[in-house]
Amino acid sequence: MSVLELQNIIKNYPDGQNVNEVLKNVSFHVEQGEFAAIIGPSGAGKSTLLTIMGALLSPSSGTVLLNNQDISHLSKKKQTEIRLNQIGFIFQNSDLIPYLKITEQLQFIQKISAKEPLNAKKLLQQLGLDHRLNSYPNALSGGEKQRVAIARAFINQPDLILADEPTASLDSKRGREVVKIIQKNVHQQNKAAVMVTHDERVLDLVDTIWQIEDGKLKKIKNH
């Protein structure tokens, strides 16, 4: 069964007298244990699509199913609960809280979770951050910050991981390390993950590749 399924998604924005159709009848699915990538040129609709997948934006029409539940038309409060407990986000700029130590970043998420979270210290150690547990974000390298962001995304054991250009601020070596960590955790924990990326050097690490162009999505690589 698909963890996430998009059915006939359309997203329009008013543009003066006209309507700008950003997503045109897009359908998509990702299953447990599958790491999918979405590629495409700037302005093609990648970020809009990921935002709709994460229940941060509602489509103009169509259905977003997470574990077979339509999440696209729920109340804002219910969507917030779903994002907290069922979706993990990894952003391109890590978005860590500057005044919290690394372990505290994860503990903050744990406190407001309805699920049984993973052990924060153990997860950080698995990601090679055992020497950084009491550090603040400003003491970390870009790669270390992204590893903390990955830990934060996985800590509540969400069903779906969404990664928005996770290698954008990293060099090629660090970027590949970060995507390998996502891949490993997705497969080991049997999660579903979707990564939007411009970085073609990491595409060998994903299971499926989808391409978006002019608001239309098609699969170009299967398992």
Summarize the structure.
By secondary structure, the chain is an alpha/beta fold. Helix content is 30%, strand content 30%.
Description of the molecule:
The chain is α/β, with parallel strands linked by helices and 223 residues long. It has a single domain (2-221), classed as P-loop containing nucleotide triphosphate hydrolases (Rossmann fold), CATH 3.40.50.300. Helices cover 30% and strands 30% of the residues. It has helices at 46-53, 76-86, 102-111, 120-126, 142-154, 172-189, and strands at 2-15, 18-31, 35-39, 61-66, 69-70, 87-90, 160-164, 192-196, 208-213, 216-221. The chain has a 6-stranded mixed beta sheet with strand order 6-7-8-3-9-10.
Key phrases:
nucleotide-binding, 223 residues, amino-acid transport, Rossmann fold, 4-stranded antiparallel beta sheet, alpha/beta, 6-stranded mixed beta sheet, ATP binding, transport
CATH C-level label? Alpha Beta
Radius of gyration: 17 Å
Beta fraction: 25-35%
CATH level 4 superfamily: P-loop containing nucleotide triphosphate hydrolases
Characterize the largest beta sheet: strand count, sense, and whether it forms a barrel.
6 strands, mixed
- What's the count of strands? 10
Q: What's the CATH architecture?
A: 3-Layer(aba) Sandwich
- How many helices? 6
The chain-level mean pLDDT equals: 89
What would the CATH topology be?
A: Rossmann fold
Note the run of SSEs as H and E. Answer: EEEHEEHEHHHEHEEE
Global geometry: globular
Q: First CA to last CA: what distance?
A: 15 Å
Task: Give the strand order, joined by hyphens, for the main sheet.
Answer: 6-7-8-3-9-10
Provide the number of structural domains: 1
Low-confidence stretches: none
The structural class is: alpha/beta
Quaternary class = single chain
